[in-house]
Amino acid sequence: MARIILQVAFCDKDEVKARGGQWDPQARTWYVPEGVNPTPFMPWMADAGQLNVRSPSYFVAASSHECARCRRSTRVHGFILPKGHTLLNVGDDEDEDEWEVGDEPSLLCSISQVTPEVALRVRALTLDYRPGFSRSGSYEWLNYCEICGTELDDNEVFCEPGMGFLAFTEEDARRVTLLHVPETFGAACGSYSFGVALFEEMRNI
């Protein structure tokens, strides 16, 4: 059995280590080694039954944001899905759930989990966008200031015009860079956009 990639908040690392999990410093991720029973690690494994967004490819988006604590500009990251991704529309009954195709790009936020492959890809790019407990107590992917380590306001990064990823002008949009990842994507998220403002003006790298 191949090793299983885990999504571990910093505050949980000692518990994962005590259960036999190991840290890979090159891949920058915790994992369940081959031959170790994965059952005790279920809290840190992606649950396919909870994923409500999926796509054959995705963009890791990067932008800048002013930290409220140190007042310095810091990089922030997020996920944008190209048109053709699918979103789970939950009905009143389970048999009414339906996957719908998104005909425009979507920006995701309030993400509680992503598939291990996506988590591994992000960790190769940055350690400042990672799962953790927000100030409100919810467990989700959060941006942290790369300078002072402060948790950044998710609403400002993703929802305020001209800040982070919600472009208000072409200049705002050009601050956003897009790294296209031609790999499958899966996530459980609480909020996503229908269309991304000035998406065509964002810079592919």
- In DSSP terms, counting alpha (H) and pi (I) runs of 4 or more, how many helices? 4
Rg over CA atoms, rounded to whole Å, is 17 Å
**Annotation, overall tally of beta strands:** 14
Low-confidence stretches: none
> Strands across the major sheet, in which order?
8-7-4-13-9-6-5-12-14
Strand content: 35-45%
Give the end-to-end Cα distance, rounded to a whole number of Å.
35 Å
Structural class, please? mainly beta
Q: Major β-sheet, in short? A: 9 strands, mixed
Order of helices and strands: EHEEEEEEEEHEEHHEEE
Helix proportion: 10-25%
**How would the global form be characterised?**
globular
Number of domains: 2
Q: What characteristics describe this protein?
A:
single chain, 205 residues, mainly beta, nine-stranded mixed β-sheet, three-stranded antiparallel β-sheet, 4 helices, 35% strand
What would your notes on this structure say?
By secondary structure, this protein is mostly beta strands. The chain folds into two domains: 4-44, no CATH class; 48-204, no CATH class. The chain contains four helices and 14 strands. The protein has helices spanning 13-18, 116-125, 154-159, 170-174; strands at residues 4-5, 22-24, 29-32, 53-55, 58-66, 73-81, 86-89, 98-101, 106-114, 129-133, 139-143, 177-181, 185-192, 203-204. The strands form three sheets. It has a nine-stranded mixed β-sheet. It has a three-stranded antiparallel β-sheet with strand order 1-3-2. The protein has a two-stranded antiparallel sheet with strand order 10-11. The longest helix is centred in the middle third of the chain and has 10 residues, at 116-125. The chain is globular and about 50 Å long. It starts with a strand and ends with a strand.
